[in-house]
Amino acid sequence: MKKCTLIFALICAVLLASCAASNAAEEAGKILRWGGDSEGGFPYMFPDPKDPKKLIGFEVDIVDALAAEMKRTPVYVNNAWDNLIPGLDRNLYDIAINGLEVTPEHEEQINFSIPYYKTYLQLAVRRKDNSIKNLDDLKGKVVGTLKESYAQQVLEEVGDIEIRTYIVEANTYEDLANGRLDAAFFDQPIALYSAGFNPEIKFVGPPVGELKYAIALRKEDKELLAEVNRALIALRDSGKLREIYDRWNLWTPVMAAEFNDFDPPVAEPERYNEWAETHRPVLTLQKRIERYMDVMPLFAKGALVTMEVSILAMAIAIGLGLLLAVARVFAPSWLAFIATLYVEIVRGTPVLIQLFFIFYGLPSVGIKLSPFWAGAIGLGLNYAAYEAEIYRAGLFAIPHTQWEAALALGMTRWQAMREVILPQAVRVVIPPITNDFISLLKDSSLVSIITMVDLTKVYGQVSATYYDYFGPGIIVAIIYLLLGLPFVRFAHHTEKRLAQVEKDGKRGHRENTYRSSTRYI
Amino acid sequence: MNIANKPLIIIENLCKSYEDAEVLKNISFTIREGDLASIIGPSGCGKSTFLRCINCLELMDSGSVTVAGVTVSRRPGEKPGDALMQKVHELRTEVGMVFQSYNLFPNKNLLQNIMLAPMVVKQMSKEQAEELALQMLEKVGLKGLALKYPSTLSGGQSQRAAIARALAMNPRVMLYDEPTSALDPELVGEVLQVMKDLDSEGMTQIIVTHEMKFAKDASDYIIFMDNGEIVEYEDGDILFANPKNDRTRAFLRHFVNSGVTC
Fold first, then answer.
1. Where are the domains of chain B?
2. How many angstroms separate the Cα of B49 from the Cα of each of A158, A343, B176?
3. Which residue, A74, A259, A499, B204, has most beta carbons within 10 Å?
């Protein structure tokens, strides 16, 4: 326990220090805020297997070199890959770099620097399979590729191929090795880092297609674009880019042609070798467990974030839900109508859309929320609609004979509500509200899409780092279960107590069926 | 009926409808202090509604009810405003009511059930309320069950507790809406005994009941209602022996035939 606290304190200290550092840099006005996805994948950018708090990758090296060239301090901002371009518009960062392809669609929204890397698609098959030599041989075969990628388009154009799309590259090559797929078709760097060291898989065929990666900037930042381009050219001409590519083993004939540089390598492919070394051997159980223990502090931190967001969201939901329920039941009809409308709209739309809207949509009307508050408020507003309905049901669950008894004793409506109805209604609503909190705890995993590093996000990061979705998956599931467990038990306990109250209540519940219980409320 | 006593409840031109059904048709009636009146009549004749109109649990459509000098009156079509509801509230503090289904608060024990209203409505201190509650429980013979919850009680005990709860507010009148209908036959007696005791202390009581024997023996008079009207009222022995009205006769014959009555 003490150790945990210590580690947590250390993490806090590191975070504070880094905040302070970035503030200082901001004051100096010489920072380069860059956006990327820590789960962007190898070899682009990924957490260092040896030290998961550290981000590495050839693109990280490029940014460092670029920033040095521009005489700025790089400040990293994490964002989901899908949202990297919207994040630019939200001003979360000034440049985005993470394997962003130069496509006409992208160019409509943002400006691209000159490409820093050019690559192609690479076909991979099982080593023993000699039937596939190029794309045309794929007809009638089962081929895996990245979902909604350029590679998928190319496969569709070939036609007559059974395409399986994946979100996690590693799974594709695993399925290829164990025979579920006949071939895998990916961007060359991904293919190399997924299977280049796998003795069961070989690469076949010529380079297919053309992919250019460039740095994305806001349309209006023309000056910065020019500065970035100048720096990139300087890095290319000085051979610094070449050196990075050599070290990552990413220098290919295509790049040689692109940079018009046919010299022999200037550096050892040390980063690639490190990667291959970590991933080639099958890990022993003990090694795995050691590794899991190493990342436990990360999981703990993620669990803390999950808990914080959930509790704050629930507090919002319980408060606002009560207001909504009271408005629906007691308020003048126009106010009741607004409350009803709110409940119906919120319950009728996906919470994911609501979160996106709050985080990415509201800034366009001047409301900018931090990811934490956007997540807590988004989930809170959503759950408030459900809590309101629970309260309403709770109020109506108390037999009208209880109102009559209270009024007949001389209580006012408000006294009857406060002293007789609410205490009973609270008992009725505690179990369903507790159950709702348990689902909220799980739904809070959605905040990972608005750049928050919660438990789910940590799972993604750790798994992408170690190429292992199994062990961390079990760990993260256990953590979610443990977080929810006290609330499950509390709900059971209150349900049992409620059963007693209900048994009593039923006896007062006959006669006068024509009198609606709403009359008193 | 003691003619010498002054009127305590004065009901004038009381009308009440539910949608199209006219439940009470222009009823006027006076009940004197210390009376024990039983209301009988066929199902749906309006006797429960009449009782519930006396403490305005059902607000009359028009007419007036006066209890111990507090008058609630309403003109036809008048919207019940704050002033009227204030009167309703005042009137209710003079009237205790007991329901067929007891309506005890299930989340409170007997002591708390009785203490609640004096503390909330009369701002009585906790100590005073507790002392009062114990007195009331003793009065209905339940002192030993003070800390029991309603779910653990028999029907007779529950109904006696409900009476104690109403008495704690020191009402001038007690209303009973079929207080023994939900009870097993062997438990009816203990509840009726409490009401007889209260009568001997001079409490004014009005009881809607199907207990013909109790109505006949214990009441000062019986009110027979049918079709939203008071058809006749008379001393029990006289009414049973010699009903004046055909409708009363028909109703009582039904009881004689089914062997319920005396």
1. 1-94+174-262, 105-170
2. 83, 38, 12
3. B204
β-strand partners of A162: A142
* Chain B interface mutation, best of A398, A404, A409, A506, highest count of B Cβ atoms under 10 Å: A409
B159 Cβ under 8 Å from any chain A Cβ: no
Per residue in B15-37, pLDDT tens?
999 888 899 999 999 999 999 99
What percentage of chain A has pLDDT greater than the value 90?
A: 34
Contacts of B230 (CB under 8 A, 6+ apart): B27, B29, B223, B224
Its sign, for the CA torsion B121, B123, B127, B132, is negative
Tokens 């409940």 belong to residue: A343
**What sign results for the dihedral spanned by CA atoms A488, A494, A500, A505?**
negative
Spatial separation of the C-alpha atoms in residues A520 and A403, rounded to whole Å: 7
Q: Which CATH superfamily is domain B1-94+174-262 in?
A: P-loop containing nucleotide triphosphate hydrolases (3.40.50.300)
How many CB pairs lie under 8 A apart between chains A and B? Answer: 76
Q: Does B21 reach chain A within 8 Å, measured CB to CB?
A: no
Q: Residue A206, Cβ neighbours under 10 Å: how many?
A: 10
DSSP letters for B39-72: EE-STTSSHHHHHHHHTTSS--SEEEEEETTEEE
Residue A500 has pLDDT above 80, yes or no: no
User: Rounded to whole angstroms, how far apart are CA atoms A232 and A242?
Assistant: 12
Q: How many residues does chain A have?
A: 521
CB contact under 8 A, B151 and A509: no
Chain B contact set for A424 (CB, 8 A):
105-107
pLDDT at A501: 54
Q: In chain A, what residues touch B101 (CB-CB under 8 Å)?
A: 401, 507-511
Query: What's the confidence (pLDDT) of residue A329?
Result: 84
Check if the beta carbon of residue B55 is closer than 8 Å to that of residue B95. yes
State the CB neighbour count (10 A cutoff) for residue A467.
Answer: 21
Backbone angles phi, psi at B21, to 5 degrees: -85, 125
pLDDT tens track for A134-162: 888 888 899 999 887 888 888 888 888 88
Backbone angles phi, psi at A142, to 5 degrees: -100, 120
* Secondary structure E strands in B82-194: 95-98, 173-177
- The alpha carbon torsion through A162, A165, A168, A174 (nearest 10 deg) reads -10
Q: What is the CATH number of domain A117-212?
A: 3.40.190.10
Residue of A398, A504, A515 to mutate when probing chain B, most B C-beta within 10 A: A504
Q: Which CATH architecture has domain A287-519?
A: Orthogonal Bundle (1.10)
Helix (H, G, I), strand (E, B) or coil at B73: strand
Q: Which of A405, A419, A423 sits opposite B99 (nearest CB)?
A: A405
- Closest of A56, A30, A24 to residue A43, by C-alpha: A56
pLDDT, residue B139, reads 92
Query: Domain A31-115+215-281: which CATH class?
Result: alpha beta
Task: Answer yes or no: are the C-beta atoms of B234 and B221 closer than 8 Å.
Answer: yes
Domains A31-115+215-281 and A117-212 equal at CATH topology level: yes
Closest to A408 (Cβ–Cβ): which among B57, B116, B149? Answer: B57
Q: Is the minimum CB–CB distance between A419 and chain B shorter than 8 Å?
A: yes
- CB neighbours of residue A468 within 10 Å: 17
Which residue is closest to A510 within chain B, CA to CA?
Answer: B101
Helical spans, DSSP H, in A239-284: 240-247, 253-259, 270-279
Instruction: Determine whether the interchain pair A412/B104 forms a contact, defined as Cβ–Cβ distance below 8 Å.
Output: no
What is the distance between the alpha carbons of residues B232 and B247, in angstroms, rounded to a whole number? 10
Is the pLDDT at A28 greater than 80, yes or no? no
- Direct distance between the N- and C-terminal alpha carbons of chain A, in angstroms, rounded to an integer: 51
- Structure token digits, residue A179: 């025979």
Residue B116 CA to residue B112 CA, distance in Å, equals: 6
- Quick one: tokens of A237? 């001409």
